[in-house]
Amino acid sequence: MSVAIPRVWVAVNVLLGTVTVSLANTALNPALPAFIAAFDLGPLAASWIVAGFMVAMGITMPLTGFLAGRLGRRRLYRLGLLAFIAGSALGALAESIAGVLLARIVQGVASGLMIPLALGIIF
User: Fold this and answer.
1) From the centroid of its chain, how far is CA 23?
2) % of the chain exceeding 70 in pLDDT
3) Could you tell me the end-to-end alpha-carbon distance of the chain, in angstroms, rounded to an integer?
4) Residue among 122, 20, 117, 119 at smallest CA distance from 63
5) CA proximity to 81, closest of 118, 28, 33
6) How far apart are CA 69 and CA 60, in angstroms?
């Protein structure tokens, strides 16, 4: 049995998810000095915290249309949201720079799925 969800709730949920993903992209930039100090990193290694996210997102975005055709937009958006939450949890629990980078790559893949789907789902 399918439950009818008011359109405004769909729009609000999709927009909140997309804004959260977009903020995750830029919010870590001011924290890079803290990562450098906490993990004793050089600037080049610390830049991979941002670059890993961007590369993963850039690689995933072109695949989103194909995957949405196979899985459906709503299901793929939900999978992206769950992956983003998992990546955030991994990042919060990371004890090494490798864990942080893995978490950021998972978040980047999730962002690459969610951002292109947002407008299609709303409209």
Assistant:
1) 9
2) 96
3) 23
4) 117
5) 118
6) 15
How high is the mean pLDDT of the chain? Answer: 89
Residue 17 lies inside a defined structural domain of this protein: no
Amino acid at 73: R
Residues contacting 114, CB < 8 A, separation 6+: 17, 18, 21, 77, 80, 81, 84
Q: For residue 13, is it within any domain?
A: no
Q: In angstroms, rounded to a whole number, what is the distance separating the alpha carbons of residues 17 and 15? A: 5
- Binning pLDDT at 50, 70 and 90, where does residue 99 land? very high
Tens of pLDDT, residues 52-77:
999 999 999 999 999 999 999 989 99
Q: Would you say residue 123 has pLDDT above 90?
A: no
What are the Cα distances from residue 5, in Å, to 30, 64, 65, 81?
A: 38, 24, 24, 18
Number of domains in the chain: 1
pTM to 2 decimal places: 0.87
The answer to the question of residue 7 being in a domain is: no
